[in-house]
Amino acid sequence: EIKNKQRRHFMFLRWKQQQRKEKLALKKKRRKEREALGDKAPPKAVPKTIENQRVYDETTVDPNDEEVAFDEATDEFAPYFNRQTVPKILITTSDRPRGRTVRFCEQLATVIPNSHVYYRRGLALKRIIPQCIARDFTDLIVINEDRKIPNGLVLSHLPDGPTAHFRMSSVRLRKEIKRKGKEPTEHVPEVILNNFTTRLGHSIGRMFAALFPHDPQFIGRQVATFHNQRDYIFFRFHRYIFKSEKKVGIQELGPRFTLKLRSLQKGTFDSKFGEYEWIHKRREMDTSRRKFHL
Amino acid sequence: SPQVVWSMLGNRQFCSYKMTTKTQNFCRNEYNLTGLCNRSSCPLANSQYATVREEKGRCYLYMKTIERAAFPRRLWERVLLSKNYEKALEEIDENLIYWPRFIRHKCKQRFTKITQYLIRIRKLTLKRQRKLVPLRRKIERRENRREEKALIAAQLDNAIEKELLERLKQDTYGDIYNFPIHAFDKALQQQDAESESESDAEREEDDDDEDVDKREFVEAEDSELSDFEDMDKLETSSEEEEEVEEEASHSKSKGKTPLKGPARRKRPYIEIEYEEETEPGTKTKAA
């Protein structure tokens, strides 16, 4: 009702201060009551977070599930987990990679042991794949580039394994990371996979685990982490040191990036005739803020 | 007459098809044979003119004669040329017999160039083509925002440190790190496990080694796949069923609901202190 903007603004500020004071007073009162009650006080209310309110996903893996265990013993990663195959990774890019992508590929190759970078000069993926299988590669990583920055990742397990297509964002090269350590050494790192709860998450997690050799060298003290939070997978590479029995210090080295799963195909990379296990359908899957699929 | 047209449009006055640059003049007329603005290549200033144009992959020869100059609708006569390169050249020669040399030559040159670029198009469509997918700004912004919030909620450093400490406790690192307090705690845990449960002592010892891992398996919804790594190191799949039973019974006997890992591990430590003192008391009360 006050027509003058300055005065109106002033009154609003005054009202806001008033509200804040009242809120503070209420808080204090409640705290006093709680202390007064002592042991009989009602337990503290747990604040709602998105993780708390997450819509229950029926494909969540129960640790005791035998069906899941059986599936996983017989799927495409079984030879890896039974230690029959050693991972050998081929990293490549889309056509004509620019500087950032090239450097990212190199750094990724140092992080993942037993990996090779090959540049693509107009070769079709469908023709590369049989060659790779012939040369005993177990995994293929294609980094897609757009406007000089990498923005997509296709991870394909080779002898006709599943293919996952991710959207990659916030890629940080080694020199852009603050307080970083020295370069990663040749030791085989450990792998941490966090929060992969559903069946889909399980299969993706196994795909990531299959990239690294099975026996980590603890002398190297390096750890690669894939942390899933609200369908975003954060990749970090650290070096850790145990300062005491309850304290550990970590130092980030190596590149970091985040992935978001776009689709999972059953066979190797085939855009036309592939059988999709899962595609992200925006209209259906993005409707609820509390529903996640990984 | 054509000379008048040229002296007006070409040289002096304005021609809307003419484009001038520093070195050359171009003609934007679609029927122009060479693309330059000349006296001999202007379709407006020549009453007898011919061009080759392509439509949907087929080439046509267009001809204009003086007789039809009064009928704009029928002005350009169109002849379909054959797909065979040599035959098409012969057809051009047939149709343009007795025409000026310049126009015949330029028509054939143009036809050659057109066929070459058509071949190139067909070759390129067979190769892979880059598919451009448009980004939706609103969705991009939404996803970036959500990624930031997820990053904050993830608390990566804490999660990694927690996981590493758990692995240290599960003894996956073996003897590399020897912290004496750790060994003491393990011994206490074992003692605690023996005193609490009512099952056999033998089963208890077995359970301890496996149960330490199994606890990880049940509670840590966070790091289920680390279990696969650890399990692969320590056990084979054949033992899984036994362990499932043992673990189920063990959890029943302990009567604890699966809580978060650190919380559960905290409780035994505290309980050790209290229960050893009050155990006789509780037993007598029960009796």
TrEMBL record, chain A:
PROSITE patterns: BRIX (PS50833)
Residue numbers spanned by region Disordered: 21-49
Alphabetized InterPro entries for the sequence: Brix, IMP4/RPF1
Entry's localization field: Nucleus, Nucleolus
Key words, A-Z: Ribosome biogenesis, rRNA processing
GO molecular function: rRNA primary transcript binding
Domain of life: Eukaryota
Biological process terms in GO annotation: maturation of 5.8S rRNA; maturation of LSU-rRNA
Brix domain ranges (all copies): 87-270
KW Lyase (keyword) present: no
UniProt function note: May be required for ribosome biogenesis.
Record protein name field: Ribosome production factor 1
Keyword rRNA processing found: yes
UniProtKB/TrEMBL annotation, chain B:
Residue span of region Disordered: 187-287
Keywords annotated in UniProt: Nucleus
Cell compartments where the protein resides: Nucleus, Nucleolus
InterPro entries: Mak16, Ribosomal_eL28/Mak16
Ribosomal eL28/Mak16 domain residues: 4-117
Gene3D superfamilies per record: 3.30.390.110
Signal peptide: none
Biological process per Gene Ontology, one example term: maturation of 5.8S rRNA
Biased amino acid composition, Acidic residues: 193-211, 219-230, 237-246
Composition skew (Basic residues), residue ranges: 251-267
GO cellular component terms given for this protein: nucleolus; preribosome, large subunit precursor
Superkingdom to which the source organism belongs: Eukaryota
KW Signal (keyword) present: no
Pfam families the record matches: Mak16, Ribosomal_L28e
Record PANTHER family: MAINTENANCE OF KILLER 16 MAK16 PROTEIN-RELATED, PROTEIN MAK16 HOMOLOG
Family: Belongs to the MAK16 family.
Protein name: MAK16 protein
Protein source organism: Chloropsis cyanopogon
Gene assigned in the entry: Mak16
